[in-house]
């Protein structure tokens, strides 16, 4: 059977793998991409990465940076028992049920309940006080029309942003800023981001839930979020600006381990149809990208990774059954990763980015 897991490495990561394989201590940054239900295809890999590989003793911090569902996955890793958090997250996420055309308030309320299940009774405290995991939650601070929850105003602002983005991603700054809430203090490797206006704010027990909820608040489908103690404004999905984090991963020399749904990255929400922006940037020199292979995806229900259209495409029972099948199948990705760790056959399997 063809491999289920695809490995692609930048030149610096490839050199490291050839010299000494993959070691948890060598990993410095772990990004998490937006994608809603797509995260289920990585859940089996996450269980191995979060519950086994990355739990080895560390002498330096591991910086976790994610947008939307990516930040929620990484919030599981930053808890004391990450696999238990992943299981709580999956159980609550799979059971989402909505009427046709649900109001944003209902989707936000449901998402808040899923987030509470993910965090459990002690999750917020464990994330903020984690001994080595430094969680960075990416959100979008909106202004002008995109800050409004009035549908006509909001969608007019988004349409203008999309048109301008076709010319340059830098035009996003006319209506929005990247806002990162994190537990890294002055040691964040992302403090020097200059590609777009970026504000950094502390991630605390008091604002953690609101920041995570904002990071996944899709415009039009969910209400905008106001985060207590943060810069005033309306916070929305971090994936608007950073759909699949494709940014300067910092000045360090450690590896960037990037579990992802695809073998490519789409920088921003408005770049989905702009295929010329899907190329991996110079920032991936020390990155190892792990993704499901085409052969693996072809074996999933309907030959595809879950997505938000499944809420419309299927009834609740069928959707939940398909998603559970994908979650179970994703264990193959974790098993292949374990095999590579045990055999050290990285060089045979990895492809250059």
From TrEMBL:
InterPro entries per UniProt: Acyl_Trfase/lysoPLipase (IPR016035), PNPLA_dom (IPR002641)
Positions of the PNPLA domain: 56-244
GO biological process per UniProt: lipid metabolic process
Name of the protein this chain belongs to: Patatin-like phospholipase
Keyword Acetylation: no
Transmembrane stretches, start-end: none
Organism: Stigmatella aurantiaca
Entry keyword set: Lipid metabolism
């Amino acid at each position: 059977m063809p491999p289920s897991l695809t490995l692609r490495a930048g030149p610096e990561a490839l050199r490291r793998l050839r010299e000494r394989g993959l070691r948890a201590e060598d990993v410095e940054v772990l990004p998490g991409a937006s994608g809603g239900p797509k995260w289920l295809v990585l859940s089996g890999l996450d269980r191995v990465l979060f519950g086994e590989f990355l739990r080895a003793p560390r002498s330096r911090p591991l910086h976790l940076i994610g947008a939307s569902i990516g930040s929620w996955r990484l919030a599981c890793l930053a808890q004391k028992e990450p696999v238990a958090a992943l299981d709580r997250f999956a159980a609550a996420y799979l059971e989402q049920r909505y009427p046709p055309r649900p109001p944003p308030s209902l989707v936000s309320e449901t998402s808040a309940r899923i987030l509470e299940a993910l965090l459990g009774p002690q999750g917020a405290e464990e994330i903020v006080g984690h001994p080595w995991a430094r969680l960075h939650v990416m959100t979008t601070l909106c202004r002008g029309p995109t800050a409004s929850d009035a549908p006509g105003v909001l969608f007019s602002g988004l349409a203008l942003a999309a048109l301008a983005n076709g010319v340059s991603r830098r035009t996003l700054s006319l209506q929005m800023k990247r806002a990162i809430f994190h537990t890294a203090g002055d040691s964040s490797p992302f403090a020097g981001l200059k590609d777009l206006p970026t504000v950094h704010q502390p991630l605390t027990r008091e604002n953690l839930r609101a920041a995570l909820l904002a990071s996944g608040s899709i415009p039009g489908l969910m209400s905008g979020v106001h985060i207590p103690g943060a810069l005033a404004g309306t916070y929305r999905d971090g994936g608007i600006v950073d759909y699949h984090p494709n940014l300067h991963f910092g000045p360090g020399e450690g590896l960037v381990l990037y579990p992802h749904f695809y073998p490519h990255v789409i920088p921003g929400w408005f770049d989905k149809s702009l295929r010329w922006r899907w190329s991996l940037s110079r920032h991936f020199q020390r990155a190892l990208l792990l993704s499901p292979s085409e052969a693996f995806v072809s074996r999933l229900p309907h030959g595809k990774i879950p997505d938000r259209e499944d809420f419309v495409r299927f009834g609740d029972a069928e959707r939940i059954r398909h998603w559970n099948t994908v979650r179970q199948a994703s264990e193959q990705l974790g098993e292949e990763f374990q095999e590579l760790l045990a055999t050290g056959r990285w060089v045979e399997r990895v492809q250059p980015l």
